[in-house]
Specification:
CATH class: Alpha Beta
Number of strands: 7
Number of domains: 1
Structural class: alpha/beta
Number of helices: 8
Order of helices and strands: HEHEEHEHHHEEEHH
Strand content: 15-25%
CATH topology: Rossmann fold
CATH superfamily: ABC-type transport auxiliary lipoprotein component
Distance between the termini: 49 Å
Radius of gyration: 19 Å
CATH architecture: 3-Layer(aba) Sandwich
Length: about 220
């Protein structure tokens, strides 16, 4: 029986195997409004969950702050934001997304509000393989006018590496690997990579923020 140490769900193997996955590509974006606002502090509000897994939003929130912060922006602590919004009567993510972004920005002193929806977060069992998919949509709205200044989407698909040789034994090993992946898929590394791609990809991600050395120097890429 394969030990946990060698399971394909370890972070190292998972990230290494992302080369076998795929991500969406987006056409070049117009960053005029974004650069006019020149946001420094971004408020990430609770995400809307369109997947069938009710626990997804909490998992996802652990993966979004770091990539945005590493692009050079201040990111308000997501769990604190969630708690404050709940105390303010906005416990439901759909209500938050439907509320006035100007009011939200004023409540926290943010320059912009980042809305994210989880379109897919699932694992499909294909007998001898399992395909794990995450899909996110991002919309950034100005905290002063409420208009959209940036939007993007990211989809990533991963299938665990199969091994075990040929013949009947190999087929059995592949079926077991696929079944385990379906039962306990590890979405977190895939979500981390999807978010990193979503905010850093040239011509579609976020330009370097004011807390990054490349701030204002990447206009040829964003």
């Amino acid at each position: 029986m394969t030990s946990r140490k060698k399971t394909p769900f370890t972070v190292a193997m998972f990230v290494f195997s992302l080369a076998a996955g795929c991500s969406t590509t987006s056409p070049p974006k117009d960053y005029t409004k974004f650069r006019e606002l020149d946001p420094k502090a971004i408020l990430v509000v609770p995400v809307v969950n369109r997947s069938v897994d009710v626990n997804v939003p909490d998992y996802f929130l652990t993966t979004i702050s770091r990539p945005v912060a590493e692009r050079g922006y201040y990111v308000f602590p997501v769990n604190l934001v969630k708690q404050i919004l709940q105390d303010d009567g906005l416990a439901d993510a759909d209500m938050v997304h439907a509320s006035n972004p100007i009011r939200l920005a004023e409540l926290f002193g943010a320059d912009a509000v980042l809305y994210i929806s989880i379109e897919r977060w699932d694992a499909q069992y294909l007998v001898l393989s399992t395909q794990i998919t995450v899909k996110f949509k991002y919309i950034l709205k100005c905290g002063k006018t409420g208009e959209t200044i940036w939007e993007s989407s990211e989809t990533m698909i991963y299938s665990p590496q199969q091994s075990g040789g040929g013949g009947l034994g190999g087929l059995v090993a592949m079926a077991i690997t696929a079944a385990v992946a379906k039962a306990v898929p590890n979405y977190i590394p895939l979500s981390q990579q999807a978010n990193k791609n979503g905010v850093t990809k040239p011509h579609s991600g976020l330009p370097a923020g004011p807390y990054l050395d490349t701030y204002g120097k990447d206009k040829d890429m964003f």
